Amino acid sequence: MILEILQWLQGSALAVSVSERWFPIVESLHVITMAIVAGTIFIVDTRLMGLTSRSLAFTYLSERLLPWTWWAFACSVVTGTLLFIANATGYYDNGPFRWKMILMGLAGINMLYFQRVTFRGVSAWDSGDPPLPARTAGISSIVLWSGVIGLGRWIGFTS
Amino acid sequence: MSLRAFGRWLESTSLSRVIQTTHGAIADIQVVHILALAVLFALALNLALRIAGRGLTQESSASLARRFVPGIWLCLAILLLTGALLIVAEPGRAIFNRIFYTKMCLVLVAVAFTFWLSHLARRREGRAPRLHAALATVYMLLWIGVIVAGRFIAYSV
Asked: Do the Cβ atoms of A43 and B42 come within 8 Å?
């Protein structure tokens, strides 16, 4: 069933157009948007770990940078989907692709847990040293997003 | 020594052979290359925004430049090192490729802009003039050009 849907997607006019004509441009846009996503997340995460931007409140830094992260993430989902449908059956079977999706899911869970639990007490450490749970969320996020970027590159070597 | 002979010599060096024959070495070097690029791009974006009078405005542009520009240089050093290793591993992909030279020219101009914007940021007080916003836009377009050219190298081998 899944394979049939993927084959249908891959055969669509949009997928064929991406595959035959637009792939390098869509891939370039995907790299640019992923660079903004990962780069801005790393800046916020290193603040969360108490390593950088200590002169700025955590809430201020995240309010200024995370809109860029979300917009770039939305664009990278669109470009990533276009790249995926160009070779849907191939990517579906690709180990690094599957692991990339899993790590993105884990990064999402890490972010949700941080927002719902750790962030509630932000007023106590907003301008000072973040507590251990915040530092843990920061380092987990850096590891997970580095994995997402790394596996994204590995897809090209295994598909 | 012709360019072709140089490429053949580079390919025959022991470093090149080690990278070529180690499973996943080229992919792993590319991963480090892209991670450094992502951090550089985000730092450059913040510098450009601050130069244009936006972004992290609670901090002076001089202070932001002092914090972020060294990070840009560190990322650039990692990019040059990993880029050099990729050229040593596969000289043919780069040294006969016009897009590679376009990318290098864009990198050089982007480096000059980093010096320039850093200088402007450290000296400026008060509101950002329009010219600074235009320079910041050109600066980000240069890095976008570097990324696009880098990706297109693979399609023009």
From this structure: yes
User: pLDDT tens across B55-91, in order?
Assistant: 999 999 999 999 999 999 999 999 999 999 999 999 9
Q: Domain ranges in chain B?
A: 3-153
pLDDT tens-place string over residues A27-64: 999 999 999 999 999 999 999 999 999 999 999 999 99
Q: Which of A38, A64, A154 is nearest residue B27 as measured by Cβ atoms?
A: A154
Q: Which domain holds residue A99?
A: 20-158
Domain membership flag for residue A90? yes
Report ipTM (2 d.p.).
0.92
Burial class (CB in 10 A: 0-12, 13-18, 19+), B146: buried
A14 belongs to a structural domain: no
B24 burial (CB, 10 Å; 0-12 / 13-18 / 19+) is exposed
